[in-house]
Specification:
271 residues; alpha/beta; five-stranded parallel β-sheet; two-stranded antiparallel sheet; binds adenosine monophosphate; binds zinc ion
């Protein structure tokens, strides 16, 4: 089955409506670029949102790629500059967090991921969008599921899937992953075939050794195996105990959170 048909089926499964306003979180990489390209091609109402992380030349290239994509697709692009909005780029912010006592072991990608998610939900809500679309693919999802199992916290994956499964909340923008069932290699091939403006280099800060280890292991398996991991996990999700999965608001920033203080403020308050 073609990528386009698989994505169409995924969007049908999550009942995405063509009238909904969808903001695609664009990193400049192949996955989110392909997500935007396909959503537009299939007739969805999309706009782009890019966070300039200010990681030197890499960020400059990503910004260029994202601008080119939005011009080509004729869609609106919203830009968020970390330096302007938060006072520093991701590298500086991350290093300050890691140099605070007890936080030295926190992985680069984990910190960056928490901050990006926080920015995305808050900014996209202000834009009155119905959904956020990200470029997460089959390989990302299989890695995350396995990592959560290896760490003994399968419940961390409970809200995962091609659409977030949280209890609806007015401050939380549901997230969708149109490429949830598409393997990374197929996306790379497709984006090259379509000559999409993509930065193929990986982020220079992506040194999360555990994810790299799990990724290496998964790459010794076939695509079918990765699909089985993701599909089987989806079956278990419904059985995971979600009774204490309540959404509350962070006491410091007011954003939706699982705990009294959200993960982002937990990181920021010790800097
Ligand atoms: P990552 O956390 O880098 O694996 O990225 C996962 C998804 O988050 C990507 O597919 C994008 O949809 C989104 N994303 C990552 N980086 C950015 C960024 N700088 N600006 C906007 N969205 C991003
Ligand atoms: Zn907070």
């Amino acid at each position: 089955m073609s990528i386009e048909q698989k994505v169409k089926n995924t969007l049908k499964k999550i009942k995405l409506n063509k009238k909904e306003k969808i903001i695609v979180a664009l990193s400049g990489g192949k996955d989110s670029t392909t997500t935007a390209y396909l959503l537009k091609k299939l007739g969805y109402n999309i706009e782009g949102f890019h966070i300039n992380l200010r990681i030197g030349k890499y960020s400059e290239d990503c910004l260029e790629a994202v601008k080119k994509l939005c011009e080509d697709l004729n869609i609106k692009l919203h830009l968020y500059d970390m330096k302007q909005e938060m006072g520093s780029g991701m590298c500086y912010l991350r290093t300050s967090i890691q140099s605070s006592s007890g936080r030295g072991k926190l992985k680069n990608c984990a910190i960056c991921g928490v901050i990006k998610k926080w920015i995305l939900n808050r900014e996209v809500r202000k834009l009155k969008a119905d959904k956020i679309a990200t470029g997460h693919n089959l390989d990302d999802e299989a890695q995350t599921f396995l990592m959560n199992i290896f760490k003994g916290s399968p419940k961390l994956s409970a809200n995962s899937g091609p659409i977030t499964l949280n209890i609806p909340d007015k401050k939380f923008v549901p997230r969708i992953k149109p490429l949830f069932y598409i393997a990374e290699n197929d996306i790379r091939e497709y984006s090259k075939k379509k000559k999409l403006p993509v930065v193929y280099d990986s982020c220079p800060c992506a040194l999360d050794s555990y994810r790299i280890q799990v990724r290496k292991f998964l790459n010794t398996l076939s695509k079918k195996d990765k699909e089985r991991i993701v599909n089987n996990f989806e079956k278990w999700i419904v059985r995971l105990d979600k009774k204490d999965d309540q959404m509350i608001y962070c006491q410091l920033c007011g954003e939706p959170s699982r705990n009294k203080i959200c993960k982002r403020c937990e990181l920021m308050k010790i800097t």
